[in-house]
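User: Structure tokens for this complex, please. No commentary.
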Amino acid sequence: MLNSIIFSYTTFVYFAAFMFYLLAMVMNREILARIGTFASLVGLLAQTVAIILRWVESYSLGVGHAPFSNLYESLVFFAWTIMFLYMIVEWRTKNRTFGTFITPLAFLAMAYASFSPNISSHIQPLIPALKSNWLISHVITCFFGYAAFALSFGLSLMYLLKRLDREERNNIFLKLIPGLRILDDLNYQMIVVGFLMLTLGIITGSVWAHSAWGTYWSWDPKETWSLITWLVYASVIHSRMVRGWKGKRIAILSIVGFACVLFTYFGVNYLAGLHSYAK
Amino acid sequence: MVKSKSKNRSNVIWGFFSSVKLIIVLLIILAIVSILGTLVPQEEGAAEFARRLNPAMLRIFTSLDLFDMYHSIWFRVLIGCLAMNLIICSLDRFPATWKRFIARPEPDRTKPFDHLPPQQSFLAQGTPEETVNKVNKLLQSRYKQIREKEVGANRFFYGEKGSYSHFGVYLVHLSVLLILVGSLVGSFFGFDAYVNILEGEQIDTVMLRKTMKPLKLEFTVRCDKFTVNFYENGAPKEYRSDLSFLVKGKEVAKESLLVNHPVEFMGITFYQASYGSAPGKTVRVKVSRNTARPTVTDMRVESGESIVLPGGEGKFKVIDVRGDIMKMGPAALISVQPNQGKPVDFWVFKQGEMARKMLPGPMLKSPKFDPSAFKPYTFFLDGLETKYYTGLQVNRDPGVSIVWIGCFFMIAGLFVTFFLSHKRIWVHLLKTDQGMKISAAGTANKNPVGLQRELEHLTNDLKGLFQGSSNR
Ligand code: HEM
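Assistant:
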């Protein structure tokens, strides 16, 4: 199908973008970073088109639904949200070094979706429980939240790396990373956006569960893990607001938070429950 | 409530629960406990897991309620601590927030103007009065609490916006409490039950999940029809129950129930949960008359209906139908009423041979299990006509609306806390020989980038005011 072909090309385009951003930093050549931005934009555009195509295609197969309903589609959407948010951040900060740390995440998500033998790219019809408009808002909010946390993860890595920067080291790569203050502020902004979106995601998920099963909260593993993630980020926000923690500690907590996100997303499939896409 | 605050503050409990360190500790503990809850199977899954534990471990697990920890006492105590923490911390901090909310700083403060970047001041041509008026008008249209002050050649303005953003945090914390209250209300005043209804049948009692006790409803529900559709690949597409609701025998409403489209009637909500098939009332039997000239008759019989025997020796009816009896498959209880004498009742199995082998000796001899108990007939059960039943989840939860209000407050509160800030703006006008020197500065309780943008915006608009006049 055309859409999955475009998706696999997008995977390579994101990889190319990553390479350009990386080389730009290693060789200190701004032009390469610009090519990286161009590649990212092309990839994002192609991916957007493919998502729309897939949506249309599902209607022509007679099972029409928004393309957010299985692991393949969610991974593709995850990559899309990461790139979308990243493009906004790059545009707002006018700094291209973030790309080196963030585009590989989008690439990995796409690569996993396109090349893992366990993931089917077929358009599948929706089972009755998934037929709900809340599904669409649930997936969109959750994945924007996950993407913001992914960016925060990238920024935290940058922060920890930047701390190694010393005048006498004269390492171009480290020098090009923006200052600690900027990274820390941006990191917190991403956490805040992610937290708001995750909260919305959990709420829309509860509303949906309530209309499908009659309970808004059933402590199924996926729900519980999203709550765990939420609690971790709530404590990050509190430790910053109330305890005044900054910098390194926030960066480390944010990495822990992203590990929870990944577990909520993938790990839970190994625990049984209502949500497991894997089967 | 907080009459003598100073006294309360010295209180140990107050001190403990107003600690902000406790929040972080509690949030982390809750996270860890929840991780445990996803590793140890809960409720239904627990039995399998428990069998693999040794007795000592099992005792520890059960005494700590680890198999149903989200409903255990200690989990509730933990949630209670969180709620106490929230309430007391909020009460403790509210007075300070209120002070910050109503504080009205002097218009002629100069500190905000320290280290002012040069692009935030400019010279304006025009008479001083005109200039002051214009600035005043712009500020009035954009900010609240405008105040001004004249000190010699200096003119100061103060204005602010977003002062309500101080309360966003309280809204978030209140929302957490509301959600907790909503779930409590649900568990005290609501119920969680299920019921299966055969197509064409009606029920007025449902089974409570927690206690496994029946609960009588104030109305009757009938399932008129159940349908299930499949996609070409065999995956289910739609489950649909057409239900009628009857009050005192009178039909009041007819609704279609689908997954994701629950139906509410008199405060009780029905959800499509499952389905299955069960024997209906129609039975197919073979009646053989074992005389010199044997005859075999196939019949479709509604249970309860009286049928004349083929030879006219009496009548029979099916008085009970079971989909499976003692693991021996479908069976029907047949009652033959001879023209004279007492009725003869006996079970007929579909798999008659198997039943014969499995039945214990004494039962085999009993006429109750002999399909030829009424001579000269032998009855055979050909089949039961199965019917769909619909499996419904039946809930009442008066707490749900409180939970949804809490969710709404949470989003609104997070939005206010994260994206709005209390911005205080000072504008300074200084009479000089070249004209009025105008500068703008400000403070904000958070989001310094947003403040910077606001100031740039304001300075631009102020500049715009005077460019317009010089063109005229
Ligand atoms: C359980 C869920 C909770 C959530 C979602 C939550 C959320 C928040 C948020 C979003 C902020 C604002 C951070 C900012 O200004 O950027 C905040 C601040 C705060 N929270 Fe919580 N909170 C929770 C529990 C608690 C609890 C149990 C306490 C107990 C005392 C607490 C005390 C505070 C305090 C003192 C602040 C700082 C307020 C200030 O800026 O003056 N929170 N919380």
